[in-house]
Structure formats: structure tokens, C-alpha cells
Model the fold of this input.
Amino acid sequence: MMKVKVLTIFPEIFPGFLGYSLTGKALSEGLWSLDCVNIRDYAFDKHGSVDDTPCGGGAGMVMRPDVLGAAISANYHGGRIIYMSPRGEPLTQDKVKELSREESLTIVCGRFEGVDQRVLDAWNIEEISIGDYILTGGEQAAQIMLDAVVRLIPGVLGNSESTSDESFEDGLLEHPQYTRPIEWEGRTVPEVLLSGHHKKIAEWQHQEALEITKRRRPDLLKKYLDSKRV
Ligand code: SAH
Done:
């Protein structure tokens, strides 16, 4: 079972969508656990303040190192510790796979302009970004990362939800998918998928995957072709 600890000033946001569907079922079955720590519980002034104005001036507020540091030292007992941050290493499916093999994850969610750099340095905290855009808080990013990670924990996906030919699995985007009815508003399912000919179907799907990756993500296609060249 993977133990996840989240440090946040909004613990009520959790489990959020992680409480539904496959991740929610896995949570109630004990395939992973979620423990939320309210950073504000470690504030010590009479206002319970967790942030202060940035040194050097500028807009917004920065999360205080003394309060966040106290929350970390009371709750972090080893394992990977991650700060959700737009400056972090971009989250990829490879990274997700790697994280899904961890026994424990501690995740720090920022708010405002982010956290004081000294906390990141002091605890040697790894930074992960979910994309090149700015959110209002790390909670949203943490839930997205956890959603991707938890579904790869053994036992979370049933046999019917295999990951083997999903997008990114072999470096390509996934081929298009179809289901019944075979005819819908004048549109039909590609003939080959009805042929029952597994080899031909696999070839068609691979061709479609190459095609869509070429069109939408030439960067991925290049990586894929380079990896085949060796
Ligand atoms: N001033 C910061 C942005 C702060 S956004 C900067 O320019 O880098 C507030 C918080 O939201 C951050 O502390 C971080 O925890 C979270 N966050 C915002 N965008 C994110 C992203 N793309 N990936 C992961 N976390 C993000």
C-alpha cells in the first residue's frame, strides 16, 4: 500500500475527485492511503498566519519557512518529498510510473506566490510541474499527479482497463477508439475493426497511432523514431 501525505492549507479539498471511481475504490480498499496535514496547524502567531510579503518587494505573498518547515518536520518520515511547482520537472508518464513504485510520497502544495526557497533547500525537496501554466494552488496539481500515479498501483486497474496500448505507453499517442452502434448518424466504424483479423487490426492501429502522433505531436514522433533507429 502506498502512503500519501499531503501538506496543504486547504485539507478540505482532498480527496476531491480522487475519492471517485477507480482511485476512490482503491482508497477505500486500502491500496493507497491519504493523510492530509493542515499547514495552518503549525502557525504560531495569534492570526495563524502561514504567509508573509516577499523579500525584495513584488506582488503577492510567500509561504513562511518557519511554519511550513514545522509542518514538514512534524510529519515527514522519509521517502520522496515533492513540491508541486511550475518550475519543477515536467510530469510525464515515465515519471508517473516511477512514482507509482514508491512506498510513500509526501507532497507539499503551495498557494500564493509559492514557498520560501529555504524550505526547499533545507529538505532537499524535489519539484514537479504538471504543465507550463500557472494554477492558483498546488492542491489541483497534486490531485492530478496522484490520479495518474494511483491508477498504476498494482490492483487498481482491473484486467479490462489495461494500460499497455495507451497514449505514451510506447511513445506514441493512442489510435482512435470506436464502440457500438456500428452505424451512427451516417458514420460507420472502420471496416478493419470488424474483420476479426487481429494482425490486421494491430497494424491499422499502429498506423493510426503513427499518423496522429505525426500530426499532433511531431516532437513525440521524432523521439519514437530515434529510439527505433538504434
Ligand atoms: N509564483 C509562482 C507561481 C505560484 S502559483 C511562479 O511563478 O513560479 C501557486 C502554487 O500553485 C504554487 O506554489 C504551486 O504549488 C502551484 N502550481 C501552480 N502552477 C503549477 C504547475 N503548473 N504545476 C504544479 N504546481 C503548480
About this structure: Residues 86 and 131 are 7 Å apart (CA to CA). The beta strands are 2-8, 32-38, 51-52, 62-63, 80-90, 104-108, 126-129, 183-184, 187-188. The mean pLDDT is 96.
